[in-house]
Design a protein that fits this description.
The protein is α+β, with helices and mostly antiparallel strands and 185 residues long. It has four helices and eight strands, in the order ββααβββαβαββ. α1 crosses α2. Its EC number is 2.3.-.-.
Length: 185
């Protein structure tokens, strides 16, 4: 059976980035990300009402890691490791089938610099080689072409298009599901 239990939170590094655990000190940066309508345009989730809601969210992230339910990293530049600029991680882990859903977001000041691509590559490698996932999936809003292109760039293939399967803010929305199989299996 697949597990996400590590003795210590796995900090990942790339050429320019450090992927680290969420901390309560990240609350203001995460609040700013999750209330930024440019960032959240295609992320169909309710916006946090206040910083306390975000602190609770961070605590749930940390508990989710400790319980082995999810694994989410803060994206930071190596030269400013305490400054959160985005996040990447695994949610909705299906342990019985060795699957997890990946998600990511980045502050617009850092868009089009290859940062999400770099973070995604490292977290995918970790998911396949350290966690031993068989499949990584991604669920995107059908209008989010930038995310679609990012997934395709990293080898994901479209597995499904669900019609009006998600209800958000008074309307039913379509979803696209992408998947990536572990090349080592």
């Amino acid at each position: 059976m697949l597990t996400l239990n590590f003795t210590k939170f796995p900090v990942l590094k790339t050429e320019r980035l450090i992927l680290r655990e969420h901390d309560l000190d990240d609350a203001e940066a995460l609040f700013a990300l999750r209330t930024n309508e440019t960032v959240m345009k295609y992320i169909d989730r309710e916006r946090p009402k206040d910083i306390f809601e975000i602190k609770d969210f961070i605590s749930r992230f940390r508990n989710g890691y400790e319980n082995g339910d999810n694994l989410a990293w803060v994206i930071a530049l190596k030269e400013t490791p305490d400054k959160m600029i985005g996040s990447v991680g695994y949610w909705r882990t299906d342990f019985a089938n060795h699957r997890a859903e990946i998600g990511y977001m980045l502050h617009p000041d850092y868009w089009r610099q290859g940062i999400i691509s770099e973070a995604l590559k490292r977290s995918i490698d970790f998911g396949f080689n350290e966690v031993n996932l068989h499949t990584i999936s991604a669920n995107i809003n059908v209008e989010n072409d930038a995310s679609r292109q990012m997934l395709i760039k990293h080898g994901f293939v479209k597995e499904a298009h669900f019609k009006q399967d998600y209800y958000f803010r008074g309307q039913f929305l379509d979803s696209e599901i992408y998947g990536l199989l572990n090349p080592n299996h």
